[in-house]
Amino acid sequence: MVPLITLVAGTGLARLAGLAGVGALDGWHPALRVGLALMLTVTGLAHFSARRRAGLVALVPPRLPHPQFLVTLTGVLELLGAAALLAPPTARWAAAGLAVLMLAMFPANVSGARRKLTLAGRPVTPLPARTAMQVTFVAAAVAISLGS
Questions:
Q1: What are phi and psi of 103, to 5 degrees?
Q2: Measuring CA to CA, which residue among 84, 86, 75 is closest to residue 44?
Q3: Quick one: which of 57, 60, 82 has its CA closest to 137?
């Protein structure tokens, strides 16, 4: 739930800053870029947090090799993508790549929910709610990729 709250709150606060006169944030498109970048920073850093890393490694479907490496790789890609979203020349391409990345990572969430795993001592988000959040995240990335 924290990633969704971060996306919504970050976008809203960035939009308010735009309305208050911050020219770079004047409009929903740049505000959404900030919100998604904040969300990806939070989730990307979680890949390296001692408290969350083991749970994220456990989410990787058992049939995939090198789960530690996959968690590191996806964390790095999320952080690089977050930075690229903040630079207008790279934002569209970054958003498109991030949409693909989020779709590729979704099976880990399905696997974790089906196996009833915990993440940082709490049960993973149930699959229906996680699916709705993932659709929201991918939609935000697609909107940035296709937007003005």
A1: -65, -40
A2: 75
A3: 82
